[in-house]
Amino acid sequence: MVELNNWNSLNWKSIERAVFKLQKRIYKASQNGERAKVRKLQKLLTKSKSARLLAVRRVTQDNRGKKTAGIDGKKSLAPKERLALAQSLELDGKAKPVRRIMIPKPGKKEKRPLGIPTMEDRAKQALAKLALEPEWEAQFEPNSYGFRPGRSTKDAIAAIYADINKSSYYVLDADIEKCFDRIDHEKLLNKINTYPRMRRQLKAWLKAGALGKEGFIETPAGTPQGGVISPLLANIALHGLTQLMNETFPVRYTNRHLAERYNLPQKINLRPPLVHRYADDFVVLHKSLEMILEARGVIQEWLKEIGLNLKESKTSIAHTLGRKGTKAGFDYLGFNVRQYEVNQVNSKKDRQGNKLGYKTLIKPSKESVKRHLRNLKEVVRSHRHSDQARLIGELNSKITGWANQYNSVVSSRIFSQIDSKLFLKLERWAKYRSPNKGTKKAIANYWWIDKGEGWIFRTPDGQYTLNKHTDTHIKRVIRLKEGKSPYDGDWYYWAERLAKYHGVKPTVNKLLKRQKGRCALCNHRFMSDHVFEIDHIIPKRAGGSNKLENKQLLHSHCHNNKTRQQRAEYPHEV
Q1: What's this model's pTM, rounded to 2 decimal places?
Q2: Count of other CB atoms within 10 angstroms of residue 510
């Protein structure tokens, strides 16, 4: 039994364990098709104290965007207010309008709307998600990756590589027009097919409207981007593409008629097109161009049923090698996927042992590289009057994040090219700051050439050093096992993937191994959706070192509690 007395003294380990036990039961019941049991467990979960407390913590402490206010003007809640919200939290079928702001799309001039719910609605959405997500995780298709626990863009790219590595394919590179704004509400609610109280609450959020600069805006369709539950609802709306392909194009033995229709050899198994989807971005793969054209028409009709359309200007057909006048390769999630012809000597073999004559390479896309270089240039220009330490700190965060995003594909040469271009930008930065000195003297002020360490961009005291893209080790990602989900309770499998593949820093990786995947304070296992931080056991200002022995990995909320206690112990140092 959870006692709601003091927020800071709550036992989060037991709270999370109680919630996960119910979620695991929901997941298993959904896998087995026990719909009545799923509904019963979901009702039990949404009414439990543990789930209400966890939902409030997720939106007030764990969420990185928690400092943004909705129409209620609340950016954060004090511990007493969190307890009060958790006590009164229930799915009552009511919802307030979201606050709408326009944010720019990455690398584009156009903007997209972002809806920010009130703090109470955020907590209710988190509570509803705790109940609905395990049910749908048991049903989602294996090649669906966006906005799902334990899955990332790296997993999506690893799956594509595994499917096309032994054969070449035609590709339908599809883009859905204004996906989040046009999903039909009634069709979505019917597809979710949940119990009445949950349905009323979901409908209230969908119909709540928005408040922007132009006043109140009705929302007759779509799921507002920015809500806690919106990505899950969008995934549910687009669920079923693989099933559609399997039903429309079942596995058949290719006779003369089918061979002529799809321009394929006779006496082979004609398989349905492969679908890989990440949120609203998806690609369809098949060896036959005619099959891809048919699939495009079938998908267009299927999308119309839920109020969506393919965006013709951004939907194209390519081939991994470039055949019949099509573009060679395709861009997906910021990666370029393409096959290159090679000599038979260097060629890999297909499943029958024959030489392929080509190899598959996945690289960062040209657009992604250009955008990253543009960001680095803006950072350098904006710090022309800043000290070197501040510039290094800003650049390191950009470099580390981008390099970790692409450290699982063929990136070494691109990393080296970016480092060379960044050096030229920093050289101009150094000359600008030393206009009365020659190039050699200007460079000597910021690079450690004269000190015998070569071209290292470092502060004079040696405390801050610029990271290089080429310092990032390339680490291949193994494809996610089909049917795996964080709700299956396989802790070893998910802890291993978290440490190996998901772009965590080397320090985090070492701490995860040392702590055996558990938080150093609450001793609860780190899960894929947990927010964690590196903590200094003894604060640096209280004499603690920056060595690994003085570091530990904590949940974000555990770190907040520890910091608060240290402020009381070391009022002048922390």
Answers
A1: 0.87
A2: 15
